[in-house]
Amino acid sequence: MTQVTLNHKQYFVNNDDFPIYDHPEYITLSLRPQLGVLEREVGLINELIEVYDSEFINIGIKHGGYVPIEVKASNKSVIIRNLNIEDLNNFDKNMSEHKETVKLIDEIPELYENKVYLFRFDYNNVKLIDDIQIFYI
Question: How many domains in the chain?
């Protein structure tokens, strides 16, 4: 576990979550390519939540829970089954540090018709995909 500064906020993450890209022309910068990818995901999810008034469910936790913490949903959940204990510890520390409310659940909740749900899968938690069924309404 290590602590990194991302956009002027401290996050506890695993040592390999946000590797620094070294470039000879930018030696004074700490370039973290993975951060840009996650920021774009957060931006897209926030736009979709605003447009569709949806519930956000993140399946698994990686990168210290950066995405579920940064998403601006009033109702957001993280499914915590099959997690690495380090990822869960980092997420707990980051939630208390950033005073965010994210509901931790053990399985996919009952889904209702005429409600929009946004699911996001974290990379190391693909075992849960068998539990998901997607319906087009």
Answer: 1
Question: Among candidates 104, 35, 105, which has minimal Cα distance to 70?
Answer: 35
3-state secondary structure of 26: helix
User: What would the pLDDT profile of 19-28 be if each residue is shown by its tens digit?
Assistant: 888 888 888 8
Residue 24 domain-assigned?
yes
CB burial class (10 A; 0-12, 13-18, 19+) of residue 59?
Answer: buried
Question: How many other CB atoms are found less than 10 A from the CB of residue 118?
Answer: 17
Tokens in use for 46? 């926030």
Position 82 confidence tier, pLDDT thresholds 50, 70, 90: low
pLDDT value, residue 128: 45
Range of the domain at 21: 2-131
To the nearest 5 percent, what fractions of the chain are helix, strand and coil? 35, 20, 40
pTM score of the predicted model: 0.81
Confirm whether 14 is domain-assigned: yes
User: Is beta strand 2-6 parallel, antiparallel or unpaired with respect to 9-13?
Assistant: antiparallel
> pLDDT band at 123, cuts 50/70/90?
low
| Paired residues of 11 in beta bridges | 4
Asked if residue 136 is part of any domain, the answer here is no
